[in-house]
Structures are given as C-alpha cells and as structure tokens.
Amino acid sequence: YVAKKNGEPFTQFRSGMLSLLKEKADLEEAFRSALKNDEIVPHYQPLIDLGTGRIQGFEALARWTHNSLGSIPPTVFIPLAEEIGLIGELSNRLFERACLDATQWPADITLSFNLSPTELTDKALSNRLLQTLSKTGLDARRLEIEITENVLIQDLATATSILADIHAAGIRIALDDFGTGYSNLAQVSNLQFDRIKIDRSLLAGFVENERQKKVVEAIITFGKGLGVPMTAEGIETVGQATQLQNIGCACGQGFYFGRAIPAEDAFKLLPLRDSELSNRLDLISEA
Ligand code: C2E
Ligand code: MG
Ligand code: MG
Ligand code: MG
C-alpha cells in the first residue's frame, strides 16, 4: 500500500537492503583477505587465581583491526567465519599462533582457547589440535579448551565423543558462559568439565543485590559439589573481586585485572606477576 501510494518508501527499502547486502559482501571480502594475510591474531586476557592473586594463565581472544573499518569484534567475525565455512581455517591459524606464544611463557602458565560450536562437529578436531601441539611443542596439559553449552544442543553424541578424544589427550575442557544458555545440569554433571566459567551477566548487580549474590553463591557451591573449579568472568570492580574471593571462587577474569592485550605485552606482564599482582591482592584484602 505504501509503495503504491508513493514509490519512495519501497525504493528506500530496496536501496537500504542493497546497501546492507553490499556491506556484508564487503565485510566478507575484507575477512577473507585478513585471514589470508594473518591479520586476525590472538590477544591475551589474564586469568587470576583469586586465592593468591597471581596470573595462572591467559585466555586467547581473537582480534582484528581493519585499515579503514577499524576494530571488528569477534562477535561479528566469528559468526561470519562460521557462516562462510572458514571457521576451521581461522581457528587453526589462531590456535597455532596462540600455542607458539604460550611456549614463550613459564611452564605453569596455561593457555585457554575458545572453540566454536561448529568445530565440535568435526571428528578430525582432536587430531588437528594434537598436530598443532606437537608442531609448536606446547604440552597438552597447559591447554584448556573453552566451549559453550550450544555444542551440547546440536549433536550431543558427536560432541561428546570429540570431547572425550580431546580429554584423553590430556587437554582440559572448560564450560564457558555458564548460566546464559540451557544450563542443562544433567549434561553439565555428566560431561565432566575441568572448569566452569560463570558468565559475566550474572555478575551485574552482584555486589549490591542480595538475591544476585545468592545465585552466584549457589553456582559456586554447585561447582564445588562437582569438584570443578569455577572462574568468574567479567570482574570489573574490586568489590566484585573481594566478594568472589570470600565465597570461594577459585579464579577470576575481567577488566579489573586486565583486558586482552597483544602477545608482546602479555609476555612482559609475566615477570611482574608476583609484584604487580600482589599489589592487586593488597587491594583485594584492603577493600
Ligand atoms: P568469551 O569466550 O566468553 O570471552 C570473554 C569475553 O568477555 C571477551 O569478549 C572479553 O573481552 C570480555 N570481557 C572480559 N572481561 C570483561 C569485563 O570485565 N567486562 C566486560 N564487559 N567484558 C569482559 P570478546 O573478546 O569480544 O569475545 C567475545 C566472544 O567471542 C568470546 O566470549 C568467545 O565466545 C568469542 N571468541 C573470541 N575469540 C575467539 C576465538 O579465537 N575463537 C572462537 N571460536 N571464539 C572466540
Ligand atoms: Mg571464553
Ligand atoms: Mg565467556
Ligand atoms: Mg561469551
């Protein structure tokens, strides 16, 4: 009706759609070229042992800064890579780079690496990971793979057998973003995760809100019951860090401790991990 009355809205709609399609095609092209030229690289966010205040490892987070488009977040290019069938290739490259970086760190510092749900349908995944470990010389026991619950709602049988292969190789498996998805507790307890990461959305209002605090405490108790160490994601304030430390959360991650930084900076941070971070720990115990 609108289009009939006046051609303009339809034309606008059409040109709007075309420019969206054009934008998407441009982004896809930019992505393909970035992938080819290794312009998408892992940065590293520290994981802090809340008991000691020390860095226990780093999580690799993919970063892409495009010449003209600027910084494009992984929440945009990871789904794009999945959609156009290039997630395996991207992941392989990021993983090899991350393993190489991790071999430069002291042997007690772990590497956490995210796998996307579609990779957990690839039966060759564990071999792929093992090949890269042996090529780079990184010990499997220093590696922790992070997966989300989404892998469990796709093909559970395939995902479970792939995860078993990964586990058998000595690689640990963490359940990421816990508390946002289906949170099928039966599956979570069956799958024997080595770590559960509490999604940062559960930390919003956590210090002020008694109910929210009870929820996080219950999740940590749940993890303790299963004997699985818990990591809280998205710690932004000393108040949150202190509370989590008090309720016995093993590990923490968030802007309060540090954002993801380039490999060279992560490397430089490590010699400081006792002095600098014990300062942070002082902050924690003062608050
Ligand atoms: P994730 O694995 O849950 O990673 C944590 C995300 O939370 C990161 O966002 C990190 O920068 C952000 N974050 C950490 N601390 C804080 C905080 O205190 N406050 C706030 N507001 N945010 C915080 P990022 O890097 O944008 O990554 C988003 C998601 O993209 C990741 O969530 C992960 O699912 C995915 N991703 C990132 N890199 C990779 C990768 O190499 N491979 C795959 N498959 N997925 C990746
Ligand atoms: Mg993660
Ligand atoms: Mg997460
Ligand atoms: Mg996430």
UniProtKB/TrEMBL annotation:
Keywords: Membrane, Transmembrane, Transmembrane helix. Residues 24-274 form the EAL domain. This is EAL domain-containing protein.
